[in-house]
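ok so for the tutorial part 2 we go from a plain amino acid sequence to predicted structure tokens. step 1 is just haveing the sequence, like this:
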Amino acid sequence: MNGIGLKKQRIEYFDLLKGIAIFMVVMGHALTMCVRGLDAAFLFKLIGQVHMPVFFFISGYLTYKANADKQFITPGLKKRFIQLIIPFLVITPLWVWYFPHSGLQSPLSDNLPDLLRAYWKDGYWFTLCLFELCLIYIPISTILQRLKGIFPQIVVLLATYGILIALSITFADEEANVDYVGFGLLARFFPVFMMGVMANHMKEAFNRLVHNQWALAIAMVVFGLSFYSVVYPWDIWGTDMASMWPVIGFATIPVMHFALIMVAIAMVEPWSLKEYRTEGKEPSAIARYFNFLGHESLGIYLLHYFFLFPLTALQEPLKEVGMAVVPLAALSMVMAFCVIGVTLLVIYALKRSKVTALLFLGQPFK
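step 2 — the prediction. this is what the tokens look like for a chain of 366 residues:
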């Protein structure tokens, strides 16, 4: 979740977006793993549709490389393997061992083969999915480099998306919690990852679009409508269309993600400019906090599960207040702040050794 580590000038609003997104990740897990039984709450559905697209878009944006003629350059994989796969291989066995001792009541795996078979990999799917997207991007970038014009490039991206959809439908089953390779999540997040790549490739056009007031207004409406159709499909399509939802979802979710990215950048970029580009002004404590979380987002993602704790006794009181947004937000924000605080202390300790920083945080030796 840290950007895939390119030596470039940092984009402050990306760090803020990552910090907000990882805070939302922990908020969501506080609701579903600590309290349980609140998956149907509107707040959880909103959080669940917002944070991960932000990470994939930023990762795609930072993965893009080009030469002086703006031709695609194929990225290397060594650094990505170190950052994403090594901690995945180290931490997932530890989590399988620790989970029975955590007191959490989530229906997660009690052995490593089950975790690797599971659709969501017991929460540790992100690093694997992102690495696989980088693998897919290597041949795509080679092809895109040889194509002139945006339309042939879009055809290639749509064809790749179609292949991933077919593989997802054939080999992944979210309801049965089975997806060995991760095709389901690859199909879900490939479009927004490539949106990040193409946004960087067409930076000037993308910036004009984000700052266009009419385009932003349309994006807000589109996000609201598409979000509603994604999280409450039966309200729009009816129960008779349930079997068609995967097809409808593959068409709707990329639209929702693009609208979300536009709205997110439009909200956070002005704040970032005010905090970090105003002469003579020191960034506020809130900005510094979320910026710091953005820098440490991958470590927080990898380690925060170990510091979640059961709060099952709060389940019924929260249901009695109708799972309203305000009490759920207040509870989950307090829990997230505490869990992240402990996680950051552990990250600080792990960074004292280059070996543990490599194994648990994916930070290569320097």
